[in-house]
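Hi V.,

You were right to ask for the full record rather than a summary. Here it is.
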Amino acid sequence: MASVDIRKQWSIAQEDLLQELAQRCQSRSVMHGMEYRVYKRLNTLITVPSIVITLFGGAASTSQSSLVELIGPSSEKYVPLVIGVLSMFVSIMGSVSSFMKIPALTEQHLQAHVSFGKLTRKISGDIQVSPCDRSMPGREACKKYEEMFVALM
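Predicted structure:
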């Protein structure tokens, strides 16, 4: 069987196409990285106050009589009300987070950011290698990387 020279199976148009695809992957990676940071911050802004409020609400409910003595007898009917409002507030924050699927979206954007970054490096690495050292012909590489890009989309 005769050996085929891979260098002859690469055109400048194919290299340009892969370069453009690498740039599109890079921009997607950056976009998903930015979205990941937004959702991570939003998740933190909901979760941390919920934890702190739950801690104070739990402490207040277990030492309700001591709290009434500390504040004064006139607060006896308001302490359970404040504890109840705090509990409802935490429940609402948890429900909003769950409804908006913030933790799941955070993880999905992180995975997309990493995946597009890997594909960018893979394409760029293949383009930077001399055509004679590339593992596959140009048409096959274009098809393979385009399929990988579409699968990530």
